[in-house]
């Protein structure tokens, strides 16, 4: 789910919501943008990752034809305009699906990933992966006059020629907050992988984020950096990170967190103000539609995970619940090597490097919770 909103108590505040509307057997993907005037264009480029399964829930593989469209309502509604033109956005692509996971680059623009302009300054709970740009901002590019809130996002595997594989720009000399995020595997041919840029000078607060390279991975232009609490530089332990092949094509990955990830229960529940972590301002669900916030490490305290995905202990197939399907999933992975097989990594619930009866017992004891 991509959710962009202008944080305001005013009823006239603009709000942009992009979420999965349907992924059916015919592989049609409709995307909802809610509470936006029909004249407002969709973002120019979005990297959309999802799951595709058959009627029995088994993951699909192969190259599938998928149609992408943006609507103003969950049911019915109008197609939204494409870019700055008057045409309506609808796009069909042939998309490679590997073990049920697919990655599609929707739209076309010089700037990769997500680009948004004045009046839209909050983006929460997204996967931004495998984008590239010829100049700058492979993963995200923001032109906003409002304070920027960029929270609970997984920004990975993006690249650009210069000025950051992931880049945020804003004009307001106020403030910006980056919280609860994972920034990993982003590259820039020139300079650091993350670029924070404010034309009029500003301050940016970075807290509760997992950033590869730490503070040194960020380049600043007219920005004062407030390196807040609980930032880390540690492998987030994704199930299967995506990667660029030798031909320049991004092979999508699975960015759910594995058991033992340092990002589990490492965020703050108040994304608007990291100084008050007990106040919950996050969406009720993660990018997959599963509930958050959950006590991911079973220590009796439930901070949110860093990144777009919440972690539920015992949920080996990442469907948001622990049931007999997880037991079957683990049984099918018994004796397999977690180091070489993504499914076995997911089934190794106690993170001891093997899939055995202890993992089955763990899931059984967590069933229906």
Question: What would you say this structure looks like, in words?
Answer:
This protein has 369 residues and is mainly beta. It folds into two domains: 2-257, no CATH class; 324-366, no CATH class. It is 7% helix and 35% strand. β6 and β7 (101-107) form a beta hairpin. α1 (324-333) packs antiparallel against α3 (357-366). The protein starts with a strand and ends with a helix.
List keywords for this structure.
single chain, 369 residues, mainly beta, 15-stranded mixed beta sheet, disordered N terminus
Rounded mean pLDDT score: 75
Number of helices: 3
Structural class: mainly beta
Low-confidence stretches: 1-44, 81-88, 108-113, 116-120
Distance between the termini: 25 Å
Outline the biggest β-sheet.
15 strands, mixed
Number of strands: 26
Q: What is the ordering of alpha helices and beta strands? A: EEEEEEEEEEEEEEEEEEEEEEEEEEHHH
The shape, in one word, is globular
Beta-sheet strand percentage? 25-35%
Rg value: 20 Å
- Measured as a percent range, the helix fraction is under 10%
Number of domains: 2
How are the SSEs ordered, and which strands pair?
Elements: E1 2-5, E2 15-23, E3 28-33, E4 45-51, E5 62-71, E6 90-98, E7 101-107, E8 114-116, E9 122-124, E10 127-129, E11 132-133, E12 140-144, E13 148-151, E14 154-156, E15 159-160, E16 166-170, E17 175-179, E18 182-184, E19 187-188, E20 194-207, E21 210-211, E22 218-227, E23 238-240, E24 243-244, E25 250-251, E26 254-257, H1 324-333, H2 342-347, H3 357-366
Parallel strand pairs: 3-5, 8-12, 9-13, 10-14, 11-15, 12-16, 13-17, 14-18, 15-19, 16-20, 17-20, 18-21, 20-22
Antiparallel strand pairs: 1-2, 1-9, 2-3, 4-7, 5-6, 6-7, 23-26, 24-25
Helix pairs in contact: 1-3
């Amino acid at each position: 789910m991509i959710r962009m909103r202008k944080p305001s108590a005013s009823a006239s505040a603009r709000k942009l919501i992009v979420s999965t509307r349907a992924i059916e057997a015919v592989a049609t993907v409709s995307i909802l943008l809610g509470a936006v005037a029909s004249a407002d264009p969709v973002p120019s480029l979005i990297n959309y990752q999802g799951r595709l399964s058959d009627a029995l829930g088994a993951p699909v593989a192969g190259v599938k034809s998928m149609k992408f469209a943006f609507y103003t309502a969950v049911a019915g509604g109008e197609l939204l305009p494409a870019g700055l033109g008057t045409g309506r956005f609808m796009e069909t692509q042939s998309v490679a699906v590997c073990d049920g996971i697919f990655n599609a680059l929707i739209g076309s623009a010089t700037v990769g990933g997500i680009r948004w302009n004045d009046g839209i300054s909050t983006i929460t709970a997204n996967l931004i992966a495998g984008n590239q740009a010829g100049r700058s901002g492979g993963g995200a590019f923001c032109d906003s006059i409002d304070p920027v809130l960029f929270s609970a996002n997984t920004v990975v595997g993006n690249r650009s020629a210069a000025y950051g594989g992931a880049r945020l720009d804003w004009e307001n000399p106020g403030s910006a907050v980056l919280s609860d995020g994972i920034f990993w595997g982003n590259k820039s041919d020139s300079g650091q992988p993350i670029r924070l840029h404010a034309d009029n000078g500003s301050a940016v607060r970075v807290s509760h984020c997992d950033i590869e390279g730490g503070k040194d991975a960020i380049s600043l232009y007219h920005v004062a950096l407030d390196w807040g609490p609980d930032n880390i530089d540690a492998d987030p332990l994704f199930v299967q990170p995506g990667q660029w092949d030798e031909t320049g094509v991004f092979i999508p990955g699975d960015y759910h967190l594995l058991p033992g990830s340092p990002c589990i229960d490492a965020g703050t529940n108040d994304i608007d103000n990291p100084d008050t972590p007990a106040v919950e301002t996050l969406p009720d669900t993660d990018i997959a539609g599963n509930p958050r916030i959950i006590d991911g490490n079973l220590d009796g305290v439930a901070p949110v995970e860093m990144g777009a995905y919440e972690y539920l202990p015992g949920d080996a197939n990442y469907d948001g619940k622990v049931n007999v399907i997880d037991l079957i999933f683990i049984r099918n992975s018994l004796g397999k090597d977690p180091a070489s097989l993504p499914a076995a990594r997911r089934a190794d619930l106690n993170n001891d490097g093997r899939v055995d009866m202890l993992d089955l017992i763990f899931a059984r004891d967590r069933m229906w919770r």
